[in-house]
Design a protein that fits this description.
This protein has 395 residues and is mostly beta strands. 11% of the residues lie in helices and 38% in strands. The protein is built from four helices and 25 strands.
Length: 395
C-alpha cells in the first residue's frame, strides 16, 4: 500500500508545473508584452442587418455588417424568391444592396462569415417593410418593340405628383446603340400631371436602338407616394423622315433622308382667331384612323361633328393631319380649317401609309396661334437645347 501512495504522489508533482505553465500562455508580462504565444479567440463573427423588424421603412438599401470577422457571402431574397443584388466592401465588413427594399415585402437575409481563426458561421434574419400608403404609377411612350420616327421622345407621365424629381430621375437608365447625346427634362403634361421626357440633342439617327429601364420599385416620389414596380421599354428608330408644312403656301412636303418624296396641297387653320394652327415642331403621336371629331372637345364655339378618315394626331389639344374632302376648294389656296391640316382623301390615304409615330412635322406660317408647347403632345423640340437640359432635376 505504501508503494502505491508513493507513485501517485510522484504523478501529482509532475502535473502541477504543467498546469502552472499552461495557465500563463498568452498572459502579458510586467512590461505589457505577452509572456509567450498569443491565442486567437475562436468565436463566430456577429452580424447586424438594417433595416430590421416588422414595419421597417422601405426605400433604403439593405445593409449587412459583420463584427469580429468578414462576410464571405450574403443572400437577400423576398417571399417570391427574387434576390437583391449587392456587393461586399473591400475589407469584408459590410454588404450593401444595389437596389432598395420595396414596400410591403418580407425579406430573408442569409450571411456567411469567417473569422481570422478560421471559424465559419451562418446567420439568418428576416425583416418586413411597411406597406405603401400611396402608390404612384407610370404611363409611358413609346411602347416596347416598336419602330418610331426620328423625333420620338421617351415620355413618362405619372399618376400622382412627383415632388422628389431627382430621386426618380436617378432611377431612369436610358441606353442607346450609338451613345446618342440627350437629356431628361421635367414638364407639365397637357393633362396637368407631372411628366419627364428624354429627347436627343438633335433628331435620332435612323437605325438607333433605344432601351429604357425605369428601376423605380422601392423609390418614393414624394407627395405622390411609392413606386411598387419597374418599367422598361425598347424601340428602334426608323427612316429619316421629316414633314415640312408651309401654311403660307398651303402645302405639305414629305422628305425622306433629305429628299422630297411628295408635295401635297393642304389647308390649315383659319387665320385671325382660335381656329389658327400651331407652328413649330409637332411630332406625330398616333395614327388614329377614322375618328369622330367634335368642336366642343377643343373649345370651339361653332359646332361641328364629323367622322374623319386617316386621322393623325399631332397635339393633345386636337390638331391633326387628316382627310378633309369637304374643304377641297381650299387645298393649296387658303387656310380655312378649324386648326387641323386637311388634304384630299387620296393624298391622305397615301400619306397615312408613309408616316409613322415619332415623325416630326415642322410647321411654319405667319398667322398661327403660337408654338406647340412641350407638354402639348411632344413639343420638346421647340425648347432650345440648353434650356431643355436645365429642365433635368440632376443639373
Amino acid at each position: 500500500m505504501s508503494h502505491i501512495r508513493v507513485r501517485i504522489a510522484a504523478v501529482a508533482v509532475l502535473l502541477a508545473p504543467l498546469a502552472a505553465c499552461s495557465s500563463q500562455t498568452g498572459t502579458p508580462a510586467a512590461d505589457g508584452k505577452a509572456g509567450g504565444s498569443t491565442a486567437v479567440e475562436d468565436r463566430p463573427a456577429t452580424v447586424a442587418v438594417s433595416p430590421r423588424g416588422k414595419g421597417a421603412r422601405a426605400g433604403e438599401p439593405v445593409k449587412v455588417t459583420a463584427t469580429g470577422g468578414r462576410l464571405t457571402s450574403v443572400t437577400v431574397t423576398d417571399t417570391e424568391g427574387r434576390r437583391l443584388a449587392g456587393k461586399v466592401s473591400a475589407d469584408g465588413g459590410t454588404w450593401t444592396s444595389q437596389r432598395k427594399a420595396v414596400p410591403g415585402t418580407s425579406y430573408t437575409v442569409t450571411a456567411q462569415t469567417a473569422t481570422e481563426a478560421g471559424t465559419k458561421s451562418t446567420a439568418r434574419s428576416t425583416f418586413t417593410t411597411a406597406a405603401a400608403g400611396k402608390v404612384n404609377k407610370v404611363d409611358w411612350r413609346p411602347g416596347a418593340n416598336t419602330t418610331v420616327g426620328i423625333a420620338q421622345p421617351v415620355s413618362l407621365v405619372f399618376d400622382h405628383p412627383v415632388t422628389d424629381k431627382a430621386a426618380v430621375e436617378r432611377q431612369l437608365k436610358l441606353t442607346t446603340s450609338n451613345d446618342t447625346e440627350g437629356s431628361w427634362g421635367w414638364l407639365e403634361d397637357y393633362s396637368g400631371r407631372d411628366r419627364v421626357d428624354w429627347r436627343p440633342k438633335e433628331y435620332w439617327k435612323p437605325g438607333t436602338k433605344v432601351t429604357l429601364r425605369a428601376e423605380l420599385n422601392g423609390t418614393h416620389s414624394g407627395d405622390g407616394g411609392w413606386f411598387v414596380r419597374d418599367y422598361s421599354t425598347g424601340f428602334t428608330i426608323g427612316a429619316g423622315q421629316v414633314v415640312k408644312v408651309d401654311l403660307d403656301r398651303q402645302q405639305l412636303t414629305l422628305e425622306r433622308d433629305g429628299q422630297a418624296v411628295r408635295t401635297i396641297p393642304v389647308s390649315g387653320g383659319t387665320p385671325g382667331g382660335d381656329k389658327r394652327s400651331w407652328r413649330g415642331t409637332a411630332v406625330l403621336m398616333a395614327k388614329e384612323g377614322t375618328i369622330n371629331m367634335n368642336s366642343e372637345t377643343v373649345g370651339l364655339g361653332d359646332a361641328y361633328d364629323k367622322m374623319v378618315d386617316h386621322s393623325m394626331r399631332l397635339t393633345w389639344s386636337g390638331m391633326y393631319a387628316h382627310a378633309a374632302p369637304w374643304n377641297a376648294k381650299h387645298f393649296g389656296r387658303a387656310n380655312m380649317s378649324s386648326g387641323c391640316i386637311g388634304m384630299s382623301d387620296a393624298n391622305a390615304a397615301w400619306f397615312y401609309v408613309q408616316v409613322r409615330p415619332g415623325d416630326p412635322f415642322e410647321i411654319k406660317g405667319k398667322d398661327t396661334k403660337g408654338v406647340v408647347a412641350p407638354g402639348n403632345g411632344f413639343g420638346a423640340w421647340n425648347v432650345p437645347w440648353a434650356d431643355w437640359q436645365a429642365k433635368s432635376a440632376l443639373r
